[in-house]
Write a structure and sequence with these properties.
It is a single chain. It contains nine helices and 18 strands. By secondary structure, the protein is of the alpha/beta class. A hairpin with a 2-residue loop joins strand 6 and strand 7.
């Protein structure tokens, strides 16, 4: 959420929030400023664990599901169009007689959504700033056809709007699954487990005694709970970069994320690698898949004494690392 854009709209762009009542912030990142907002009236709706935790630490009320009605709902526009429409539709239903504010960057599709909204509601105002727009309209408009609930793929798997690879298993995970040894055994974790497809492939190994699915996006983890029904599976809504199991693991498998918004950020994958080394037993091993261009080798060399490329193509590399050198906290 560009707080500059929102604060500009509140200070000089004509946006006036209701004087009383709760104000919901949909999808606001944990470091977003609250300039122009009364923190005591704010309720953040956030399903991404690191941001959820950041708001808690700031002393702001934060939920994973909205409990309206609200005097106003401020929607932080996500990248995925179906999730953006769903947030706006929910906001309108949750603010009858109130106000809906939509704040988004051009790269996240605010121009197209603004055009679509003009055919559905009367825009009360808008400002353009920081490569995006902030616009607002009266709540209560019927936008029910913009709701997008979790849905089943032809395979029967449940996915949800906005989660990674919501239309099916991604090619990198498929490549990693094919490269995994048939002899995997013991206690494992899937860091960044998403909606559970890779975890289900891991669990085809009978010698796996338990598998921890660690996922920061609650919507994805909720789908994984439906998709992975094996009794050996344990589910954790957590940040994979600081999650710690009860005891050290025999193996970690992962297809780590490498984007923050639209910007590629290899530091996320690097943090996953150091976390894997931290939670593995001395004999433990890591298997990961990454886009060919991502510079993970230096971090692997710092965190493990042995690293081998065991597969891949011009798009992906599949790496195995052994003998973790980082001490477990």
């Amino acid at each position: 959420m560009s707080s500059d854009r929102l604060s500009f709209a509140l200070a000089s762009g004509g946006l006036s929030l209701p004087a009383d009542g709760r104000i919901a912030l949909f999808g606001a990142p944990g470091d977003a400023a609250l300039d122009g907002l009364d923190p005591a009236r704010v309720e953040v709706i956030q399903t991404f664990f690191p941001d959820h935790t950041a708001w808690q630490q700031r002393g702001i009320t934060v939920q994973t599901e909205p409990e309206g009605p609200y005097a106003a709902v401020i929607v932080n526009l996500p990248r995925a169009r179906d999730l953006a429409e769903d947030r706006i539709a929910r906001a309108s239903a949750l603010a009858p007689g109130g106000l809906v504010v939509v704040n988004g960057a051009k790269t996240d599709g605010i121009e197209a959504l603004a055009k679509a909204l003009r055919g559905r509601v009367t825009l009360l105002g808008q400002v353009s700033k920081a490569h995006g727009k902030c616009l607002w309209f009266d709540g209560g408009a019927d936008l029910a056809d913009w709701r997008h609930d979790p849905a089943r793929l032809p395979s029967g798997d449940l996915t949800a709007p906005g989660i990674f690879s919501a239309d099916g298993p991604d090619p990198a995970s498929q490549a990693l699954a094919k490269a995994l040894p048939a002899t995997l055994k013991g206690r494992f974790a899937d860091l960044g487990a998403g909606w559970g497809w890779l975890s289900r492939q891991i669990l085809t190994r009978e010698a796996i005694t338990e598998l921890h699915l660690v996922e920061a996006e609650k919507a994805a983890l909720d789908c994984a709970r439906e998709n992975v029904t094996d009794a050996r599976a344990q589910f954790h809504w957590a940040d994979a970069t600081d999650w710690t199991p009860a005891s050290a693991l025999d193996g970690v498998i992962m297809n780590p994320p490498f984007h923050q918004g639209r910007k590629a950020d290899p530091d996320i994958g690097r943090a996953f690698i150091t976390s894997a080394a931290r939670i593995l037993a001395p004999h433990g091993r890591l298997w990961l898949v990454a886009n060919r261009h991502l510079p993970y080798e230096a971090t692997l060399a710092e965190s493990f004494r042995e690293t081998t490329e065991i597969g891949g193509d011009n798009r992906f590399k599949i790496l195995q690392a052994a003998r973790p050198s980082r001490q477990r906290r």
